[in-house]
Amino acid sequence: MTTSQPLEGPASPEHQVPGARVETTGAESTEAEPTGADGTGVDRAEAQSTGVGRLAATVERLRGEILAAQAAADGRALIELAKGVLIERLRCGPAAAARQLASLAREAGVSQLELAADIVNQSSQDHLTELASGFASLANSDPPADADEPSVGVRLRTAESGALAAGDTQAAAQSLLAHALSPLGACAVAVWSAAADASLALAGHAGFAEGEAVRWRHVPPGVSTLARRALTERRTVHITDMSAEGLPSIGRARHPRGGRIALPVGTGGRVNGVLEICWPNPLEPQPPQILRQIEALAELCAHTLESRPDTAAALPSADAWVPPSDVSELVDLADGLYDPALVLVPHLDTDGQLTDFRVHHVNNSFVDPAGRPRNAVHGARLLEAYPMAVGGSELFEKIERVYATGEPFRTRRMTLTALVGQVSLAAVADISISRHGGCVLLIWRIEDEAARLAHLLQHAQRLGRIGGFEENLTTGEVTWNDQLFDLYGRPHDAPPVPLEALTSYAHPDDATTIRRFLRTVLHHRRSASAAFRLERPDGVTRHMRVIAEPVLDTDGRLLAVRGAYQDISSQHWTEVALAATRDQLAHTEQQAAESNRLTLQLQHAIMPPTEAPLSSPGLQIAVRYRPAESESMVGGDWYDAVTLPSKQIMLCVGDVAGHGIEAATSMVVLRNAMRGLAVTGAGPAQLLSWLNIVAHHLTTHVTATAVCGLYDPERHTLRWARAGHLPPVLLRGQQAEPLPATGGILLGALADTDYEEQELRLETGDTLLMYTDGLVERRDEAVQDSLARLLTTAGSPAADLEKQLDGLLTHSASDTDDDTCLIGVRVL
After folding, report:
1. Are 528 and 615 found together in one domain?
2. Domain check: are 392 and 519 in the same one?
3. Residues 303 and 339 in one domain
4. Do both 694 and 757 map to the same domain?
5. How does the average pLDDT of the chain come out, rounded?
6. Which CATH number belongs to the domain containing residue 433 in this structure?
7. Which is deepest, 22, 345, 750, 823, by most CB within 10 Å?
8. Where is the ANTAR domain (predicted)?
9. How far apart are CA 36 and CA 661, in angstroms?
10. What CATH number should be reported for the domain holding residue 690?
């Protein structure tokens, strides 16, 4: 609950509102603490001894007396209502009624204000009475903790008395906050008035600073606020925390995380405004009793807003239908429209609820979708004349909403359905609904199907750059549409060009084609078409196509010729450009195919897909090369297996980055360089170091991976090193394991680098596999997973090394379409 303080003032005890409190929120409730000369706080007693302190205390005392006097006046108004009830029932005078009220209060042990509220409740039996009774029954089962708090009935009746006695909505808002909303924890309230143009005006407020109220005095139509949302949706809007919402509203900066409730207020189906209540802290969903209490306060606001000069409007009742005073101007406006229009006035039942609209006027342009005359609709109720307005089209709901909120509604191509007998007739129309004072103007424009098709045809001709013509051969009259004048580059007031004169406007080289076209249409009386170059008066030459057909009478005589011209310049130049592109593309494809063929021949010349086994005592060597499936993907994979002068056997595989002729030529350079360097007798690590120098200095931007091994047949040992390549795989028994990886970056990355070297002793029956990444690489998995799959496949026993290599290539799961090199070595 917000901080509050009891009322003080000269009010008499019998008129004092029991337990009433004055809200101390907003700019008016901020109590200024006295400060010293240095700006620091000073003691209150010391401040009161100064002139400024005494003045502040006097202002505070007078303000409290004014608020207390206002609360007492609201209480006296409620007591006066109760006296009036006693005068009517007891047939006594005012003095006797006052004495009777005081006597009854003493006997009941309650204050005169509480007794007055009970008397008014029993007499009125309205919504406030039901609400107070519900709270009373709830209180009887669960007594309130604070006996000093006034009952709900007293609070509501006091707020009602203050609102009805107030001279304007501002005073009514202050009374609602002081008597009914502050006990609920609310800190501020705003009453918005809805104008005919759907704008909002701040009619009354309490708890907000004056400067804030001035800034929010007017909200134009279309501005999305919390009050606008409640007005448009015509329902109560509950906001738990304003910081979580993007809706602006009055006082949001003061209470950024406060809760809000906004609900529309109005009577007779028309929403006159919005009641917006502000809490300082987040607000959880309220129980039904509190919501009903707030709805009762909204009804008080509706009656207050109806008394405003700018919102008061005469509403027709069910018994006596009286047109609103502003309907004559709306009738004049409707008669000046070229579209069908209806002037509608609301029709209320005996309880003041909107049930229908009456057709007050039908303008002269009115066309009924069912074909009925104007007098069949004039004076009838809307749902009687058009019962299908409720349902599919939701026309009645749209009219009802416009009347309630004042926000106009417009849409295109709404289906209107009229019921004639038992047959429903549908028409498509553009709809406009607007509120003017207490009336609604409904305008519709029935869609003309012929006009719509003509409109579509006109757009199609414009987009297709087509112009139509018709030539009457009997009278010589030639008719063109506007598009054809634009195609010819002639002003619209110039005479059309007849077909006989077409050669005068065409390129001389196309004269023969046009004469053949005219002879086919005019003499042979058959449809024909021809393409020619049109030379326009502005010097522009356009490529055109003319299509024509003869119109014959029943005797076969030629009466007229109908046809169309189409500007095909874009198509012509597109065809020319496509032809040039096709020629260039064919030449490029031929060059690419030739380059790929040469690259593949070069690669096969150096490394055939299969090679005769290398003869070496105690060792079986097999090699495989699988080229890329696409010739454009020819890469730089290479292998080598050769016996050196030292009787050692060099085994190498490598992969040059990239594809095409550059990768293939770089592969040749590295492979031949490795062979030449190997005759020096250096070890694998040294060979890779020298090969790195070749890749970095003696080639252009070449990088590659490689693995190199030297096998000694006498010692059965393999010395090997690698440069960024996958390590070899050793098959021993039924186990397949990769050799421990040695350090070494790829070739050509750095100018000078060293490589590590390892030595492995091979046993009889061991098989060593050296391969490039085309054997295992996949786009959708890591290299480690692909290598694990290779180890599983290679671990299967195979009696013949050649078949084992073929099996590895066959069951390879790689999907990169890259070429692959594979060397297998088995110790016998």
Report:
1. no
2. no
3. no
4. yes
5. 78
6. 3.30.450.20
7. 823
8. 59-120
9. 92
10. 3.60.40.10
For residue 219, the Cα-to-chain-centroid distance in whole angstroms is 26
> For residue 586, which amino acid is it?
A
Is the CB of residue 26 less than 8 Å from the CB of residue 187?
yes
Helix (H) or strand (E) holding 205: strand 200-206
- Answer yes or no: do 269 and 368 share one domain: no
What is the C-alpha radius of gyration for the chain, rounded to an integer number of angstroms?
49
Question: What is d(CA 432, CA 50) in angstroms, rounded to the nearest whole number?
Answer: 69
Q: How many domains does the chain have?
A: 5
Measured CA to CA, the distance from residue 198 to residue 410 in angstroms comes to 14
Burial class (CB in 10 A: 0-12, 13-18, 19+), 578: exposed
**Structural domain ending residue among the three candidates 426, 447, 468:** 447
Dihedral (Cα; 507, 508, 511, 514), 10-degree rounding: 10
One domain for residues 136 and 200: no
Beta strands at 439-446 and 423-436: parallel, antiparallel or unpaired: antiparallel
231 and 266, same domain (yes or no): yes
pLDDT digits (tens, 9 = 90+) for 453-493: 566 667 777 777 788 899 998 898 999 988 889 889 889 88
Say if 370 falls within a structural domain.
Answer: yes
When mean pLDDT is compared across 44-58, 105-119, 321-335, 483-497, the lowest value belongs to 44-58
The pLDDT of 140-165, averaged and rounded, is 50
pLDDT, greater one: 817 or 564: 564
Tell whether 504 and 406 lie within a shared domain: no
* % of the chain with per-residue pLDDT over 70: 73
Report d(CA 92, CA 165) in Å as an integer: 25
Mean pLDDT of the region 276-303: 81
- End-to-end CA separation in angstroms for the chain: 97
Task: Give backbone dihedrals phi and psi of 679, rounded to 5 degrees, phi first.
Answer: -70, -10
Q: How far apart are CA 83 and CA 94, in angstroms?
A: 7
706: number of Cβ within 10 Å: 29
